[in-house]
Amino acid sequence: MKPFLAAAFAAALAFPAGAEPLSPVKTAQLSAALYATGVEMGDPLLILSAAKLRKTLNPAKGSLLAEGATPVDDAPLGWEEMLASAETLAEGDDTLLGLIDDVRAESSKGVSSGPVYNIGALGNGGNDTYPVVEFVGGEYAEVYVEAKDATDLNLTVYDAQGRLVCSDTDKSHIAYCGWRPDQTGGFVMKVENNGPQGANYALMTN
């Protein structure tokens, strides 16, 4: 993909004209996908768009732990880390480096109520089951997981009767589930690491 096409693609994804505002959880997912694509393609423009999106978030650390797990001292991938990656790829390109500096200097306009994140850790082949979490009936519910390292995370959500509500089992280091509960009730979230390596991950909810 030529640079100007990459720029247009990134802009269209990050700022779609006339679109409804993205939810904080969906914004986190989109920024992670853009970042991963930018790294894979060696394209600092895509990474820059990812960082710009992630800077709009204001994630709040939660206290949710998987059953039997111990707290992990880590945080989701931040916009600062994304910009650092873009800066490395843009070395020698003064125009791109200037754009990176502009994004870094922009005042953060994070949403007043960003996604709640919890950090977990899974070895290759491991899985985490979270305690029941209540979601409000009639309101769109979202759960999202992402790992900084290259691995394959799967996400499944079950209702109180053990019925599968949503799953994302694509081979990727990110996974997203969204659904609208008919009524307020408890749901169980399960995260599985299919490898090829262990990794810390962030679980986000709205």
Explained architecture:
This protein starts with a helix and ends with a strand. 34% of the residues are buried. Residues 1-17 have low confidence and may be disordered. The protein has helices spanning 3-14, 24-41, 44-54, 79-89, 94-105; strands spanning 60-61, 116-122, 127-129, 133-135, 141-147, 153-159, 164-168, 174-179, 185-193, 199-205. It folds into 2 domains: 3-105, no CATH class; 117-205, Jelly Rolls (Sandwich). The chain is built from 5 helices and 10 strands; from the N terminus they run αααβααβββββββββ. With 206 residues, the chain is an alpha+beta fold.
The succession of helices and strands, N to C, reads HHHEHHEEEEEEEEE
Oligomer: single chain
The end-to-end distance, rounded to whole angstroms, is 34 Å
- State the helical fraction: 25-40%
Q: What is the radius of gyration?
A: 18 Å
